[in-house]
Amino acid sequence: MGRQNVPRDQWLELGHECPRCGEQISEEDVHSWRPMPEDPKLLLLYCPNCGDRVEINHI
Ligand SMILES: [Zn+2]
């Protein structure tokens, strides 16, 4: 589980690799688009393969 700093446009277009198992995670796997007040650029996803939580921090 780790926070990844990824440009929003890049990951929306190409997806993002799960840091644990390497599975490609896409927009469909987003658990929450809702910005958190304390961290409005943070996005939560769950890997469909290993179930690991991935946090993407839009930069
Ligand atoms: Zn995974």
Account of the 3D structure:
- By secondary structure, the chain is mostly beta strands.
- It has one domain.
- The chain contains one helix and six strands; from the N terminus they run E-H-E-E-E-E-E.
- The protein has a four-stranded mixed β-sheet with strand order 1-6-5-4.
- The two termini are 19 Å apart.
- The mean pLDDT is 85.
Which terms summarize this structure?
59 residues; mainly beta; four-stranded mixed beta sheet; 12% helix; globular; binds zinc ion
First-last Cα distance: 19 Å
Q: Largest sheet at a glance? A: 4 strands, mixed
Radius of gyration over C-alpha positions, nearest whole angstrom? 10 Å
- Tally the helices: what do you get? 1
Apparent shape: globular
Number of strands: 6
Mean pLDDT: 85
Helix content: 10-25%
Strand content: 35-45%
> How do the strands of the widest beta sheet line up side by side?
1-6-5-4
Low-pLDDT windows of residues:
none
Topology pattern, helix = H, strand = E = EHEEEEE
Coarse structural class: mainly beta
The small molecules bound here are: zinc ion
Secondary-structure topology with pairs:
Layout: E1 3-6, H1 8-14, E2 16-17, E3 24-25, E4 30-32, E5 42-46, E6 53-58
Parallel strand pairs: 1-6
Antiparallel strand pairs: 2-3, 4-5, 5-6
A few lines on this structure:
It contains one helix and six strands. With 59 residues, the chain is mainly β.
